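User: Teach me something about this protein's shape.
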Amino acid sequence: MGVLEWLSMFVALGLLVYLFVALLKPEWFA
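Assistant: First, the predicted structure itself:
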């Protein structure tokens, strides 16, 4: 895999984790 593939996968995982945490712990972002 190239750098772009890793980077896009890392960004996608980060977004998923961010959305998951935002759903579970909205008070952290308030």
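Now, about its shape. DSSP finds one helix and no strands in the chain. The chain has one domain: 1-25. If you'd like, I can walk through any region in more detail.
User: That's plenty for now, thanks!
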